[in-house]
Amino acid sequence: MKRFNFYKPGIRYGQIAALSAVLLAFVSCAGVFSDDSKENAKESIKVMNWNLQTFFDANFDGNEYAEYKSPKSGWSQQRYEARLDKLASVIKETDADVIIMEELEKEEQIQDIANRLSGTFDFKKLYSQAIFATNEGASIGCAVLSRLPIEEVTVHALDIREGSKQPSMRPIIRLSILSKDRELTIFVNHWKSKSGGAEESEIWRKRQEKLLADLIWAAKKDGAVLAVGDFNKEISEFDINLSATEGKNVILHGSEDVEVYSPWINDSGEIQKTGSYWYKNHWERIDHFFVCGNIELTDFCAETEGEWADSEGRPLRYQIWSGRGYSDHLPITCTVKF
Question: What is the mean pLDDT of residues 291-300?
Fold first, then answer.
């Protein structure tokens, strides 16, 4: 783990279970779960999650996806800078307090993003904290930008050595966001994709679900928990249980099952029609917010109105050869009170 502080320059190094992570400090629509007796004391923050669609930098390190290595791809420093500008414009538009991103290549990109977000004298708008984590040798990882202090960062990965060979997968990042005297525990996820076959790869998503459920079970107590990210799993593929504890509608299966709430599902059990990922001419809801504990989630939506979406509200996939588009996923946002 590394920490950068631009007030007091310095770097500290460390590792957790052969994983690489970085923590930087730099200047630069629905829910329940409320406790009326503590309502006045709750903090409210806006969170955005976005899979950025293979956001590589312009340096060729050998681990990039094949389409970025081709001399005919058109990928260049100029294209990279343009993608950075687009990303920064979306972050400014959504104006969330915590930004969670999947499919960034490396930690140095966090600084590039921060430089484009630093043009303000409103210190409350500055993203002063950041994290990046990935598996060693992996092509992409996950990142967090936060206007609020980040504490207690750990990364957790599967290490399965029985049966079929374990594919490359991203770790789950656990972190705590502090707002005044309140603490929010966040788990950042990017689960195994369905490439190679949905049924064949489902065993790995189930194992990642178990890991997440066990982590939530150990962390929740009476606190506030938010699990977020690209789970590569449609909400209908989870165990939906409307008869669970009031305010919960999904069960995550682990050593101990955990009841959570998903805003994709309304009180009558209907799933929102619009999703976050447009695939083979239909919507998928594979990007998620799950909450449990002393927390309230409101104002959830897939951001369909913006320069990153077409006239039908579908994501404008990034095209390397032309430099057009943003991502094949829509950003999703919500407000949490804890």
Answer: 96
Residue 240: Cβ-neighbour burial (10 angstroms; 0-12, 13-18, 19+): middle
Distance CA 227, CA 218 (A): 13
Rounded distance, CA 87 to CA 129, Å? 17
- Which residues does 37 contact at the CB level (< 8 Å), separation at least 6? none
Residue type, 182: R
Two structure tokens written together for 322? 């032309």
For 26, residues 6+ apart whose C-beta sits below 8 A from its C-beta are: 4, 5, 6, 111, 114, 127, 128, 130
- In terms of Cα–Cα distance, which of 208, 63, 69 is closest to 139? 63
Closest listed residue to residue 300, CA positions, set 250, 259, 265: 265
Cβ-contact 180, 43 below 8 angstroms:
yes
Q: What is the pTM of this model?
A: 0.89
Please give the Cα distance from 335 to 305 (Å, whole number). 18
Predicted confidence (pLDDT) at residue 30 exceeds the cutoff of 50: no
**Dihedral sign from CA coordinates of 159, 162, 168, 173:** negative
261 with 300: CB under 8 angstroms? no
Query: What is the Cα 223 distance to its own chain's centre?
Result: 20
pLDDT tens, position by position, 149-202? 999 999 999 999 888 889 889 999 999 999 988 999 999 999 999 988 999 999
Rounded Cα distance between 94 and 49, Å, is: 11
Query: What is the per-residue pLDDT across 324-336, written as a single tens digit (0 to 9) for each?
Result: 999 999 999 999 9
| Distance between CA atoms of residues 311 and 301, nearest Å | 17
